[in-house]
UniProtKB/TrEMBL annotation, chain A:
Species of provenance: Gracilibacillus halophilus YIM-C55.5
Spans through the membrane: none
Protein name per UniProt: Phenylalanine--tRNA ligase beta subunit
Family: Belongs to the phenylalanyl-tRNA synthetase beta subunit family. Type 1 subfamily.
Note on how the cofactor is bound: Binds 2 magnesium ions per tetramer.
Keywords: Aminoacyl-tRNA synthetase, ATP-binding, Cytoplasm, Ligase, Magnesium, Metal-binding, Nucleotide-binding, Protein biosynthesis, RNA-binding, tRNA-binding
Assembly behavior: Tetramer of two alpha and two beta subunits.
Key word S-adenosyl-L-methionine present: no
Cofactor list: Mg(2+)
B5 domain segment(s): 408-483
Gene name in the database record: pheT
An example Gene Ontology molecular-function term: ATP binding
One GO process term, biological-process aspect: phenylalanyl-tRNA aminoacylation
Residues annotated for Mg(2+) binding in this entry: 461, 467, 470-471
């Protein structure tokens, strides 16, 4: 909403206020002033001039040589505008004037002839092209005859105005009108509001004799008033009105249209003007549309109507889509003589639905949707009649043909000074509360600290105590409310164990060299099918798509964090950043239904992606690319630090390298995977060799973590035995390790691989894996016999289970 | 013989002085003090001496041997010290060469900001709550006083999944769920950080996915002045003790009165500059007293309980605090962006 201060001054006295200060006060009290525009900045050397003569320039076809009387002198001015003519009153920038854009006007010679100034178009004076009336959009502006030669153009064209741009919250529809703004500013400044005059000199002829109103849908249309105005002469509206409309961002058209727009802005009440002679009957029938009914709206579009659309008809065919747009048939034209002015209250929901169905948003629909002031509907119609009489030479028929079931009662809300103070933490007196209500122009009955407030109907947003609390608080001033800290019992805030662990895992991974990413949960429908961890894959029935996505890339909720994170790798690679290790914590979304009806399961994952050099220390010739075991080392360390033991099993899954992927298990439960991205996928994402891990974070957070208990530091020496076993290529080290641990008995406290070999001296298809086995009893020194017997048991077991032989 | 011994001593001491390596020193030791050395020879020849001469010469021989031994030992210590120094000299490295890099990871800027804000409110007795990102229409809107067809639903155009399910547009549903769970049985003092989603086209200031932290305190006798106090402490801790806050009226369907909180501009301290669009103030968050209908729907009697709520966008806060100029930086995860925020 644009608010012209010059217009606002018609209702309240704000001459003495600095616009910047006023904007600040309005912002602090209730409505955010988003911008302040000093309308245009032409200097005062621009005046009205009378074109005494206009002849063609002797040396140029398209230029005119004009003698222009500017009051104290006559200036010779060369003008190129096609519409300049003798006898016009025009805007003349005299030499020395500075036009917007710092355009300085000087005496000059054009094609050998002297020119002492410039005849201006509205655009040249700083008026935005889109508000310039069509008649003047291609040339200079021509004033109506009544202006005086020599008058200051800035004032005449309202170029000294200041425009506030209001960023209105949806509740403050009262400020969608100049009167509403006037009440708001009046409350801040504690001044009176002067309402406009609506008196007309009426005829004996009554509107009701010429037109009847019938409403078949009173719920959707509780009030409909039809005013009749005859003998209209269509022409331009007065200059001041055009100025105000342009300031408010509306292009002037003609006096009838301008007046309805002016009243819309002044009262916040949309009006509609029909050409009475084209209406096709003497009755207005408001009803819901019939199934299959159509109408052609002003924009010449044929609209198919539905039974929830409210239409204004002549008893037969629709002439308007109520509150949204008029029809083409009864449109006001230059030939119009008699106008039917509609002033109505349309149900907000009905208008909202229609305007959204047809994607038609207008100044009118915006106001109806929020609920107009029931007490201003008829007044606005009367105001329009008064302006038509004054500025369109019209005769207003007496009275109004109307249907009226509208509730115009003021609501009562009771407030108490003590409750206000309890809620705000203030010490207001009854007098202060009364003062605030008076400033707001709210009537009230006061008994002690109890106020029965009669909320004016212009304030459709106030219903309950808390609404009034806000009114009192904002006029009192939020700056005046003290700073206190809550008095309630002192709760101990804090993170839950789960939240603490989450932070721990983040810090752990960061310490291991990973950067955290945050990627989008909504991803590409095609991308989601890969990299789904087996335990998710076995549970998901369907992915969760959006009903109306904005783009294909963000159309479906992710089933894995990997695809979006690979995108991140790809993005960085494209920018020559090749050493990348990222992790992310986030949810995947899986539905247990074929078609989603219930909230999907949201499972938290912790996922890592790696590519490029892991160790890079060139001058010492040290360099190591990320590989499976770098990633596994980090995952192992994470599990170790969480005191969870994890096992790995070779696996094959979509998107991953079939020979370099493992599934992870904790207590036989699958909890994720780790491995290399399949070369095909690497190619699809434009990646080099890339590794990932993806773990069930929920499980890591929820599993019972044993608190560490004290273990005696061993005093006795441990015994180490190393064995190198030759086995088939297909035998896994992990299985051998498992066999060793099981067969070797409880004295083993650690087994680990220290060498893997294949090649020379070994049979084709065989490999050698060497284990270091540590024996330890915390309480005593082990005997050779004990160790030997365990060693034998191990040898027997690996021979039997894995056909292993001791490497010679 | 006496002369011979004195001569030997003089000779030996002279040689010791000239020796520069441990090996040469050992040679000197062997040549003078060894079993085949001249002193041993002198001692061996003592039999030929008279009874009177024997102890005198014996004593002198021992003294000479001791003197030479001491000189050798002393010289040895010096040479060893010199050798050590030489070795150190040889072992000297260029300490300005680069060290072996240790991979340094770090949190995303959003995480840093969120955790900082969490810790700040934890310090004021708040707990941290989380909730689902796919919400029901009820918890996302209706329980927050946004019934179907409410005009304010326009303010946050949403990603719907079904008629009744949508991507949450704010984290307030976590508050509604928490209150609903307690049904008026106890006070609630919580913040809820998390991802939220709105139908916005991604550009420098809009993102279809972003982060929110909302807070809620419901108890007996919660006042607007308490909200001011808590937000003031928050703003000063996060942005600096020299910053001021102010509240301005606003509108949210779930609070009444509703306010927006501004902080004084860091650049101009309230005088007006380009950062704050000449206003001297920068908008930080929305807040208000919990709407009685919201309390009632969750089983809290608005006659007994009152509360305040607030909500902020960590992206916006990070942008203000660190001067990040485009919200998309948070989601492209350019390593060169992420690395900028890893130092404590």
């Amino acid at each position: 909403m644009f608010v012209s201060l010059n217009w606002l001054k018609q209702y309240i006295d704000i001459d003495h206020i600095d616009p910047e200060d006023l904007a600040e006060q309005i912002s602090k009290t209730g409505i955010e002033v988003d911008g302040i525009e000093h309308f245009a900045s032409a200097t005062n050397n621009v005046v009205v001039g009378y074109v005494e003569s206009c002849e063609q320039h002797p040396n140029a076809d398209k230029l005119n040589l004009c003698q222009v009387n500017v009051g104290d002198e006559t200036l010779q001015i060369i003008c190129g505008a096609p519409n300049v003519a003798q006898g016009q009153k025009v805007a003349v920038a005299k030499p020395g004037a500075v036009l917007p854009g710092n355009f300085k006007i000087k005496k000059a010679k054009l094609r050998g002839v002297e020119s002492n100034g410039m005849i201006c178009s509205l655009q040249e004076l700083g008026v935005d092209e889109k508000y310039v009336p069509k008649a003047f959009s291609e040339g200079i502006f021509v004033f109506p005859d009544e202006v005086e030669v020599g008058d200051d153009v800035n004032q005449l064209l309202n170029l000294d105005d200041v425009i506030f741009e209001f960023d209105l919250t949806p509740n403050r529809s009262d400020a969608l009108s100049m009167l509403g703004v006037a009440y708001e500013v009046a409350a801040i400044l504690d001044v009176d509001v002067h309402l406009p005059q609506t008196n007309v000199s009426t005829t004996a002829e009554k509107a009701e004799d010429k037109v009847s109103v019938r409403v078949d849908a009173p719920q959707q249309n509780p009030y409909y008033g039809a005013f009749l105005v005859k003998d209209i002469s269509i022409g331009p509206s007065p200059l001041w009105m055009r100025n105000y409309l342009m300031a408010a961002g509306i292009r002037p058209i003609n006096n009838v249209v301008d007046i309805t727009n002016y009243v819309l802005l002044e009262y916040g009440q949309p009006l509609h003007a029909f050409d009475y002679d084209q209406f096709g009957s003497d009755q207005v029938v408001v009803r819901l549309a019939n199934e299959g009914e159509t109408m052609v709206t002003l924009d010449e579009q044929e609209r198919s109507l539905a039974p929830h659309h409210l239409v204004i008809t002549n008893g037969d065919k629709p002439h308007a889509l109520a509150g949204v747009m008029g029809g083409a048939d009864a449109e006001v034209t230059d030939q119009t003589k008699t106008v039917l002015i509609e002033a109505a209250y349309f149900d907000p929901k009905t208008v909202r639905q229609a305007s959204s169905d047809f994607d038609l948003k207008s100044e009118s629909s915006a106001r109806f949707e929020k609920g107009v002031d029931p007490n201003r509907v008829r007044q606005a119609g009367e105001r329009a009649c008064q302006l038509l009489e004054q500025y369109a030479g019209a005769t207003v028929l007496d009275g109004v043909a109307e249907f009226d079931q509208l509730d115009k009662q003021e609501k009562t809300v009771t407030i108490w000074t003590s409750t206000i103070n309890d809620r705000l933490g203030t010490n207001m007196t009854n007098q202060e509360v009364a003062d605030i209500l008076r400033k707001l122009h709210f009537h009230f009955h006061q008994e002690g600290e109890t106020f029965n407030v009669f909320v004016p109907t212009r304030r459709q947003d106030i219903h309950i105590f808390e609404d009034m609390l806000e009114e009192v608080a904002r006029i009192y001033g939020y700056d005046e409310i003290p700073f206190t800290l809550p008095q309630g019992g002192s709760q101990a805030g804090g993170l839950t164990r789960r939240q603490q662990l989450k932070r721990y895992i983040k810090r752990f991974l960061e310490g291991a060299g990973l950067m955290e990413t945050v990627t989008y949960s909504l991803t590409n429908e095609e991308r989601i099918n890969h990299f789904i961890s087996p335990e998710i894959q076995s549970e998901v029935v369907s992915a969760v798509p959006l009903k109306m996505p904005m783009s294909e890339d963000h159309s479906t909720l992710r089933l894995s964090l990997v695809p979006e994170m690979l995108q991140v790798i790809s993005y960085n690679l494209a920018r020559k950043q090749g050493q990348l290790a990222y992790y992310e914590m986030g949810s995947v979304f899986l539905s247990h239904e074929g078609e989603v009806t219930k909230q999907p399961a949201e499972k938290e994952r912790v996922t890592g992606v790696f590519t490029g050099e892991w160790v890079s220390h060139p001058w010492q010739q040290e360099k190591k690319l990320v590989d499976f075991f770098v990633v596994k080392g980090i995952v192992d360390a994470l599990f170790y630090s969480l005191n969870i033991s994890v096992t790995y099993k070779q696996t094959k899954m979509d998107g991953m390298h079939p020979g370099r992927t493992a599934q992870l298990f904790v207590n036989h439960r699958p909890i994720g995977f780790i491995g290399q991205v399949h070369p095909k996928q690497e190619k699809a994402y434009d990646l080099n060799e890339t590794y990932v891990f993806d773990l069930d974070l929920d499980y890591l957070l929820d599993i019972h973590h044993n608190a560490p208990s004290f273990n005696q530091i061993p005093r006795n020496p441990s015994v180490t035995r190393d064995i190198a076993l030759v086995v088939d290529q297909s035998v896994h080290a992990g299985d051998l390790e498992h066999t060793i641990l099981t067969a070797g008995g409880e004295l083993i406290n650690d087994v680990h691989v220290f060498d893997v070999y294949q090649g020379e001296h070994l049979e084709e298809g065989k490999k050698s894996i060497a284990f270091s086995i540590h024996y330890q009893d915390p309480n005593r020194t082990l005997t050779d016999e004990e160790v030997e017997s365990s060693y034998q048991a191990i040898m027997d077991a690996v021979k039997e289970k894995h056909q292993a032989v001791l490497r010679g | 013989m006496k002369e011979r011994l004195q001569q030997l001593e003089k000779e030996a001491l002279e040689k010791v002085k000239q020796v520069t390596s441990l090996k040469d020193l050992q040679d000197v030791r062997v040549s003078y003090l060894g079993k085949k050395g001249p002193i041993t020879e002198v001692l061996r020849g003592m039999g030929k001496l008279s009874k009177e001469e024997r102890p005198v010469i014996g004593e002198l021989a021992n003294k000479v041997r001791q003197t030479i031994t001491d000189a050798i030992d002393e010289r040895k210590a010096v040479i060893e010290e010199e050798e050590m120094e030489r070795q150190m000299e040889e072992e000297t490295i260029d300490v300005t060469l680069p060290g072996r890099p240790v991979r340094v990871g770090g949190p995303h800027l959003l995480t840093s900001i969120v955790e900082e804000i969490e810790d700040l409110f934890i310090g004021m007795g708040f707990e941290v709550r989380e909730g689902p990102e796919v919400e029901t229409d009820y918890y996302n809107f209706e329980a927050l006083n946004l019934p179907k067809g409410h005009p304010a639903r326009d303010m946050q155009d949403s990603f719907y999944i079904t008629e009744e399910l949508l991507m949450r547009t704010h984290t307030s549903p976590v508050q509604a769920r928490t209150m609903n769970q307690y049904q008026g049985s106890k006070s609630v003092k919580m913040i809820c950080p998390g991802k939220v989603y709105r139908r916005d086209t991604d550009d420098a200031t809009h993102s279809h996915q972003f982060t929110q932290i909302e807070g809620l305190y419901v108890d007996k006798n919660v006042r607007l002045s308490d909200l001011k106090g808590v937000l003031n402490r928050f703003a000063k801790q996060l942005f600096g003790e020299d910053r001021e806050i102010r509240l301005r009226p606003s509108f949210f369907p779930f609070t009444e009165p509703s306010v927006e909180m501004d902080i004084s501009c860091k650049m101009c301290h309230g005088d007006g500059c380009s950062v704050c669009k000449q206003s001297g103030w920068i908008e930080i968050l929305g807040a208000g007293l919990v709407h009685p209908r919201v309390l009632k729907m969750a089983g809290y009697d608005p006659e007994v309980y009152s509360g305040f709520a607030f909500g902020m966008g960590p992206e916006r806060i990070a942008m203000l605090k660190y001067g990040v100029d485009d919200i998309r930086h948070f989601y492209t995860n350019d390593i060169r962006f992420l690395k900028q925020y890893h130092q404590a």
